Amino acid sequence: MQKIGIVTEDVTILLSEIVERYQIEIVYAKYDWPPEKDLPGENIYQKLREAEKRGIKVLGKTSQPPPKAYLDAFKRQLERFDKVLCITISSKISGCYNSACQGKEMLPEKEKKRVYILDSLNAASGEALLVLRAIELIQEKKEISEIIEEFKNLIPQTHLYIIFEDPKWIEAIGRITKSQAKWIRRMKKLKLHPLIEFKNGVLSKGGIVFAQSSSEALFKKILKESKKSTKQGKRIKVVICHADNLNEAEKLKKMVEEKINAKVLFLNLAPPLIGVATGPGTLIGSWMPIK
Description:
This protein folds into two domains: 2-29 and 64-156, Rossmann fold (3-Layer(aba) Sandwich), CATH 3.40.50; 159-289, Hypothetical Protein Tm841, Chain: A,domain 3 (2-Layer Sandwich), CATH 3.30.1180.10. It has 13 helices and twelve strands. The protein is α/β, with parallel strands linked by helices. The strands form three sheets. It has a six-stranded mixed beta sheet with strand order 9-8-7-12-10-11, with helices on both faces. Helix 3 packs across helix 4 and helix 10 (214-225) runs parallel beside helix 12.
């Protein structure tokens, strides 16, 4: 039996080859948007754009997986691994962590002791960086106690920034007011890009960056915030995701690789749990320092 197996959510946007290679169990968040099945498009974000063109205003609903989904994932991993490490999306924006804890409590007492649950205080590409680091530590034969100890320091050093194409989507779900949305649009016309970032597990204002594009704005933010780490001789790891904005995602990848000497682990489509709230065109970048 192998030592440590991983459980996480689909919000982590891991590539399928990573999931398969390391036998990661993925627990799926619930997502419901009835118009989706009748709309053309290769992904949910293309369908959302089409819905807007047709005047369809029904918004998708998301919710955390039920405890049983985590319970089933734990059971499968406990058959293959001696211990299980579950890394969840921030408990401050989702009920996934609580569902995972409830799922663990459904296990027999002996098996409970083999399951460890970590709150990433992050999401999407930020959560992915943490899962990938856990994989590295497992490959290095680290004990689960050593992994948890490292994560105490690593979680605060894992950063995620979001920049949206248009604020109408977060306005529609009530996260910002109509006047705030208008202000953001005025700023963007002046090439001033408001950012959102994770701070202590919650989404907060991340400042305003002057740039010609979303990719340049996120690059400037990552460049500025990672300067201390790079001056210490550290490289940084980056994961990028997007809501059907591959062109800007690839531009961001090129900039951070060439101008910061960063290692971009992968880029992928953003999870609906976040992308539906921020809207099509959203660009998300995460980074952490490499020791």
